[in-house]
Backbone:
């Protein structure tokens, strides 16, 4: 049976499907065209397909291959959207597919469809259903998994879920959570010439530097306690901007970055930590700070002994002839939505 199923996998068809998906631009929040294509593709395979338009510009595709009943449902899950960055036309070079979303993660969507096709055409009896779900609000900051969260809250999910993202040769069992902080340090009044600004006027850039210094100190503290599989929690500064002229005393400075945290750290803990830093800087500098903190995903942990983990590793060993390493992921994924 194993050899028969593997023999039905068509690498050229898999490549064509991936290229067809990559050719369709699908930035987060505008995935209607690629969702329609994927739905048609799954219908042609013979799956029962439903398109959910709770988010009209980012519809979700759900497809099901029915089992005989009485068994658990296995879900393949992936996202249709890509980061909003232009890329040259997709192509194949030296056996690799290049193009926006080819790895993240239209290749995974194509693999989901190919696996479903192989199972459907082989007539392998399934006790439970095979469920495929593809959604379009994954990539931050424009998406935060709102569509997938809505689907899961309505009870549409597998008893076990394989998210076909990150890698084909490792299995993440621990992942970091991610929050995005956006802090604007302010003082009253308009920007003014440095020589005409009264002594003692709060300086937003100095306040922003103070805030960044506290984050850097916390980052160094966190680095001393790495977590299994994923390493240490972290702070990262991506944007710092203040002022509009070399001799003008600005009235605002903005600091934006990320706080990545482990599965045992709650978002509420992260928020309390950052607001404590804000209060300290406000007290020391006389500035006020507007803090916006967005939770993208929490961290997750899956036990190494979970049946789906054991089954995946056994299947990989059977097909590839080697062990499937367990790893951690510092990248944001959708696993926490299911856990």
Residues:
């Amino acid at each position: 049976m194993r050899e028969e199923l593997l023999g039905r996998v068509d690498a050229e068809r898999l490549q064509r499907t991936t290229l067809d998906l990559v050719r369709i631009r699908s930035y987060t929040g505008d995935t209607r065209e690629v969702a329609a294509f994927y739905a048609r593709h799954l219908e042609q395979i013979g799956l029962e397909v439903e398109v959910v338009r709770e988010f009209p510009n980012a519809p979700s595709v759900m497809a099901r291959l029915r089992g005989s009943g009485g068994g658990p449902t296995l879900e393949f899950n992936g996202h249709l959207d890509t980061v909003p960055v232009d890329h040259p036309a997709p192509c194949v070079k030296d056996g690799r597919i290049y193009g926006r979303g080819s790895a993240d993660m239209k290749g995974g969507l194509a693999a989901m469809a190919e696996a479903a096709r192989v199972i459907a055409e082989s007539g392998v009896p399934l006790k439970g259903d095979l469920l495929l779900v593809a959604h379009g609000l994954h990539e931050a900051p424009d998406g935060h998994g709102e569509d997938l969260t809505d689907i899961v809250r309505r009870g549409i999910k597998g008893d076990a879920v394989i998210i076909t993202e990150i890698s084909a040769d490792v299995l993440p069992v621990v992942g970091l959570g991610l929050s995005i902080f956006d802090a604007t340090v302010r003082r009253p009044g308009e920007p003014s010439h440095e020589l005409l600004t009264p002594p003692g006027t709060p300086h937003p850039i100095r306040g922003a530097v103070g805030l960044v210094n506290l984050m850097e100190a916390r980052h160094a503290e966190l680095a001393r306690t790495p977590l299994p599989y994923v390493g240490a929690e972290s702070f990262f500064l991506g944007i710092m901007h203040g002022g509009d002229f070399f001799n003008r005393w600005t009235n605002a400075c903005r600091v934006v970055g990320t706080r990545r945290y482990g599965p045992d750290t709650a978002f509420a803990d992260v928020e309390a930590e950052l607001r404590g830093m804000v209060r300290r800087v406000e007290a020391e500098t006389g500035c006020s700070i507007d803090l916006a903190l967005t939770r993208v995903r929490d961290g997750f942990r899956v036990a190494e002994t979970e049946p789906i983990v054991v089954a995946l590793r056994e299947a990989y060993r059977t097909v590839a002839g080697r062990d499937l390493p367990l790893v951690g992921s510092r990248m944001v994924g959708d696993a926490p939505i299911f856990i």
